[in-house]
Amino acid sequence: MISALLPNYARADLAFERGEGAWLWTVDGRRFLDFGSGIATASLGHGHPHLVKAIAEQAAKVMHTSNLYRIPQAERLAARLVENTFADSVFFCNSGAEANEGMIKMMRRAMSDAGKPERFRFICFEGAFHGRTLATLAATGNPHYMEGFGPVVEGFDHVPFNNMNAVRAAIGPATCGIIVEPVQGEGGVRPADMQFLRDLRAVCDEYGIILGMDEVQTGMGRTGKLFAHEWAGITPDVMSSAKGIGGGFPLGAVLAKEQFAKALVPGTHGTTYGGNPLACAAGNAVLDVILAPGFLEGVQRKGNKLKTELETIAREFPTVFVDARGLGLLLGMKAAVPVAQIQAACVAEGLMAITAGENVLRLAPPLVVTDSEIDQAAGMLRAAAAKVAAAVANKAAAQ
Distance (Å, rounded) from C-alpha 184 to C-alpha 294? Predict the structure, then answer.
């Protein structure tokens, strides 16, 4: 008999009742160091006083009115995002998949408004992940995710990541734009080469097509810049954001330059919940922290510290790990054994990590993680790796 809660997730047998910073406590009193952050979403950790206060105060006033009316909290958040990014205008929604859907629609509509409705196709990349809706599944391109859901939404062409020759070969008269993640999170924590991102910007300018950046996982300070494309010194035309933007409260956004943003006139796109007062109160509170002087520099420093630790552990346990990779506080370790085995060993040590494609262990701690907590996490990971290495050695000896 099916459970009341749809069993479409392979959930770990852990239930948390409270959190503080980078730590979580289960209902049975166990404590874990959270280096998953709800899949890179709890950007300020758990129970952050400023975020909690902003949400509680707004909830006591008004949570939702709909987009039939002005929403001052959304207006303020949009203005701050515009001030601190390439964008001229922002649309708010609820999730990363919705943000990517909005970005796809905006890019197609802008091309149509430019008198080129035949240009509706997108170049996307192998290993990408853009969401679970029908269109974002098609943009993702992973056959496993699309199986059983009927005809695949038309208009998405996939080429190898970091391969500019393949991009140029895929551009045709029906190409609308390119959609790329600066770091493929779900795809294995695979950073784009900075020159590759610069070349994508150049080829879009050369062919008059639109550059869309999926920064759902990489944005809002995760890599040590407000948005990861800043490392390449370029700007996209349109960009999606979600996950860390609300610090754990559901919020997504599409940011765009004016010529593309103006394509979505009244009646072309919308949302009931998106950008409501409560969500945008959370978003403003997150920005207060991330934009504070020195915060992003701190993320860069802590990211470098954690990556150095991971590289050392990978060298110490070559039968367990192949390499360390990533940018800022979005890091991964490619495993030499089934990654679920390493993840289970981490949990046994009190460290929560998540997995990604290419058999990668993904580490995405809250941006407020401390140096001491990074040291503790490294110790837990080293202990887990030692146990896995011993199991590998015992298995080899028995054969």
Answer: 26
Quick one: how far is CA 221 from the chain centroid?
11
At residue 58, the 3 state secondary structure works out as helix
DSSP-assigned states of every residue in 253-316? EEEE-HHHHTT--TTS---SSTT-HHHHHHHHHHHHHHTSTTHHHHHHHHHHHHHHHHHHHHHH
Residues 6 or more apart whose Cβ sits within 8 Å of residue 387: 345, 348
Class of domain 49-290: alpha beta
Note the pLDDT tens digit of each residue in 73-86: 999 999 999 999 99
Cβ pair 371, 302 in contact under 8 A: yes
Domain edges within the chain: 16-34+294-398, 49-290
The predicted pLDDT at position 130 comes to 98
User: Is residue 2 packed enough to be buried (19+ CB in 10 Å), middle (13-18) or exposed (0-12)?
Assistant: exposed
pLDDT of residue 398: 86
339-349 helix and 371-398 helix, angle to the nearest 10 degrees? 130
**For 334-357, b where at least 16 C-beta lie within 10 A, e where not — what string?**
bbbbebebbbebbbebbbbbbbbb
Q: Given the DSSP bridges, would you call strands 354-356 and 360-363 parallel, antiparallel or unpaired?
A: antiparallel
Model confidence at 229: pLDDT above 90: yes
pLDDT in tens, 86-99: 999 999 999 999 99
pTM for the model stands at 0.95
Instruction: Answer whether 16-34+294-398 and 49-290 agree in fold.
Output: no
Residue % of the chain over a pLDDT of 90: 98
Q: Is 65 helix (H, G, I), strand (E, B) or coil?
A: coil
CATH number of 16-34+294-398: 3.90.1150.10
Region of 291 please: left (phi>0), alpha (psi -120 to 50) or beta: alpha
* 194 contacts 225 by C-beta, under 8 angstroms: no
Nearest residue to 195 (alpha-carbon basis) of 235, 232, 239: 232
